[in-house]
Amino acid sequence: MAARAIQIGEAGGSVAAAIATYRQRRGWDQAYLAERVSDAGRPMSTSVLGKIESGARRVDVDDLVAVAAALEVSPSALLPGGEERADPFEEAAAPGQVRARVLEDIAALGDLEALDTTAPTLAAIAVRLAQEIDAPASLGNSLQGLSKELRQVLADLRSCAPEERDDDDDLDDLATPD
């Protein structure tokens, strides 16, 4: 008689949804998160991560800890009924200097949703890169490479914004009576 697979329960479904939510908030694709999980010491393919997020694969404790580390949250943040899901990527209290400036620049661009379908994704990528620049040693990335990539993403993001209108029509002298 063949063994029947144990179905993923409500808690497993909640963990899967939390992983996908945190990943998407950061603007990361599954390949990038799988790479970060592997870098955290738990080899994981994009296919396996996709199965986890879809609820087709159970998450064991080792997977949970590695995925949480890669997402920069505590493992309990991924569990139902655990700690409040405060996302450090969305906290405005104490972002790093680079991230703070990138967030200011993005805010200055205005409503990204209305500009271009790629703008929100570019903004998320810019924030992720800024976060990595603020703490490159913890992620093992080259500061020079991250800076170069961030400059390119910000240039792409600025190109999505409409050009500012020149409000100076040189007619100021006509507006005031003599």
TrEMBL record:
InterPro entries: Cro/C1-type_HTH, Lambda_DNA-bd_dom_sf. Residues 164-178 have a biased composition (Acidic residues). It comes from the Bacteria. CDD domains: HTH_XRE. Residues 159-178 are annotated as: Disordered. Transmembrane segments: none annotated. Residues 19-78 form the HTH cro/C1-type domain. This is HTH cro/C1-type domain-containing protein. It comes from Streptomyces pharetrae CZA14.
